[in-house]
Here is the input.
Amino acid sequence: QQQVKQSPQSLIVQKGGISIINCAYENTAFDYFPWYQQFPGKGPALLIAIRPDVSEKKEGRFTISFNKSAKQFSLHIMDSQPGDSATYFCAARNVNFNKFYFGSGTKLNVKP
Amino acid sequence: NAGVMQNPRHLVRRRGQEARLRCSPMKGHSHVYWYRQLPEEGLKFMVYLQKENIIDESGMPKERFSAEFPKEGPSILRIQQVVRGDSAAYFCASSPPRTANYGYTFGSGTRLTVV
Here is the structure.
């Protein structure tokens, strides 16, 4: 059972464009929603995170939008750059078990 | 403050041998998690450990795989009698005891190749 559903599986964006990756969940016990960025051959690195009492969080060119009622959250990368080309994973933590569930990943390719 | 340290970075084993992967969590982190990632795929949860305790091993294959996090020393993921299908990247992550706003910190992974 996939606890966190992520889409799209892959994404191609032109340099300067906006990249949008979406995630959805069902479990209301989730209380913390991070996004991870992974470059080939590297481990995932925490990019940005949000709690459900906030509808939006912005850090530089990266923004998380959170819709609690719809149980959906998304990552927006503004002014996408070739250096942003990586795989992005959303995740959600179950407050009862201190355990994160990961989406299946989105491979982003930003064309120069 | 060193991050999560995993070794070796690359490990080659012949079918039937044992693979032993090590993970030293960040200083102050008492929770360790192991994930497996197949090429072009997502992160699959394997096991969650605290010092001397296995908290959740629901993602561990029932046979050949085991994990420990002793009182002293790194966490170890052990794969006995490896098969080609065990070839993957294995990532360790650590976290402090439950806090409000803290995600995992991942290591750089061990890439296991079974020949």
Q: What stands out?
A: Chain B has a mean pLDDT of 91. The two ends of chain B are 36 Å apart (CA to CA). Chain B is about 0% helix and 50% strand.
